[in-house]
Specification:
7 helices, Rossmann fold, 6 strands, binds iron/sulfur cluster, adenylyl-sulfate reductase (thioredoxin) activity, 6-stranded mixed sheet, single chain, iron, alpha/beta, about 220 residues
Length: about 220
């Protein structure tokens, strides 16, 4: 299938198969949110057996790390890679995430991934963003051309569709999701979302920040 026939109803597995054919060194990045877990299952069904790369900032919820461990067991055909900036969590009172969240994301999240990608140099990245996650993602397409090609198979899937797929396949969704944490990052920068809010409204709430920098801005991948 070629991209000229793609539309909002194109099956994400067809997008992944297309990506695997064109970019065999394709690498997936994931934070193991609901979308990420669903993308891993779809990728498995489409034949993906490459790396799934996660950045451990030192501030993840235990539930997130447990979700990663479940996925490692469930998908032995994939190589799960955990990167770390090797910075210990800061003592209370000196936290960079309070005074300079952009700088904190830059050193703890973006830098380890950029360094890893510079070494591996994959031609394309597979990731789980979707249009309905936030206003900043409303125009997301299946393919973005940038420093690297970025493939977004879930771009057009709605929240209800993603949840239904996860439940139908008994996927190990982070239990915090069902407690209202619709997008889960580091615990100091994540709260549950309120009715009517964007899925990502609980990220950096009140900090004037909407993205970690992996996907928009000067540091984007
Ligand atoms: S999400 Fe918060 S704690 Fe995590 S790296 Fe960014 S600023 Fe630091």
């Amino acid at each position: 299938m070629t991209t000229q026939y793609w539309d909002a109803n194109t099956d994400p597995r067809d997008v992944i198969r297309w990506a695997l054919a064109g970019y065999p060194d394709l690498l997936m990045t994931s934070a193991f949110n609901l979308n990420g877990v669903v993308l891993i299952e779809l990728a498995a069904q489409a034949g993906f057996a490459g790396e799934v790369v996660f950045v451990d900032t030192g501030y993840h919820f235990p539930e997130t790390l447990a979700t990663r461990d479940h996925l490692i067991t469930r998908y032995p055909q994939m190589q799960f890679v955990t990167l770390s900036a090797d910075l210990p969590p800061e003592p209370w009172g000196e936290e960079q995430f309070r005074s300079d969240p952009d700088g904190c994301c830059r050193v703890r999240k973006v830098a380890p991934l950029r360094e890893y990608l510079a070494r591996k140099n994959p031609s394309a990245l597979l990731n789980a963003r979707s249009r309905d996650q936030a206003a900043t993602r409303r125009d997301l397409g299946f393919v973005e051309i940038g420093e690297r090609v970025r493939i977004n198979p879930l771009a057009y899937w709605r929240r209800e569709q993603i949840e239904a797929f996860a439940q139908a396949h008994h996927l190990p969704v982070n239990p915090l999701y069902w407690a209202g944490f619709k997008s889960i990052g580091c615990w100091p920068c994540t709260r549950a979302v309120r009715p009517g809010e964007d899925v990502r409204a609980g990220r950096w709430s009140g900090k004037g920040k909407i993205e970690c920098g992996l996907w928009i801005g000067e540091q984007s991948l």
